[in-house]
């Protein structure tokens, strides 16, 4: 997963700092060796270090030293994302409605459990996104 975070103004001194977080979720629909290799790389410390080095975003991956990120902003974002004191609330309603998220989750679960083949699960997921 790739997470980005931005500081937002707090309402007062005694309030927690609020963070606006966006996320990119990785989903593998292939059990192939090549697919597994790609997923392993995209969740590795090596990839997280390369991403953070670009300086365009931070990383929550604990295999990356926040101080090594490519920009001061990426360093601060990485510190926030890696801190066990940070509480992040993800909101995806702007991207997908609860009905679409539920339909996608159900389609992926059916495929992963063998209750639906790949074509059927994909069809269900596509139908939910067309609504």
Q: Care to count the β-strands?
A: 2
Radius of gyration: 18 Å
* Arrangement of strands in the largest sheet: 1-2
Largest β sheet strand count, sense and barrel closure: 2 strands, antiparallel
SS class: mainly alpha
Seen as an oligomer or otherwise, the chain set is: single chain
Protein name: Alpha-glucosides-binding ABC superfamily ATP binding cassette transporter
Q: What's the short version?
A:
The protein has helices at residues 33-42, 45-53, 72-82, 98-112, 118-130, and strands at residues 2-8, 18-24. It has 131 residues and is mainly α.
Please tag this protein with its features.
131 residues; 2 domains; two-stranded antiparallel ribbon; Alpha-glucosides-binding ABC superfamily ATP binding cassette transporter
């Amino acid at each position: 997963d790739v997470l980005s975070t931005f500081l937002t103004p707090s309402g007062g001194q005694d309030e927690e700092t609020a963070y606006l977080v966006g996320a990119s979720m990785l989903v593998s629909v292939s059990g192939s060796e090549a697919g597994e290799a790609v997923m392993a790389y995209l969740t590795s410390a090596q990839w997280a270090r390369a991403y953070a080095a670009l300086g365009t975003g931070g990383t929550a991956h604990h295999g990356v030293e926040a101080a090594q990120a490519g920009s001061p902003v990426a360093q601060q974002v990485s510190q926030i994302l890696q801190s066990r004191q940070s509480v992040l609330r993800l909101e995806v309603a702007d991207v997908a409605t609860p009905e679409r998220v539920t339909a996608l989750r159900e389609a992926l679960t059916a495929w992963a459990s063998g209750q639906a083949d790949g074509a059927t699960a994909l069809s269900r997921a596509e139908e939910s996104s067309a609504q």
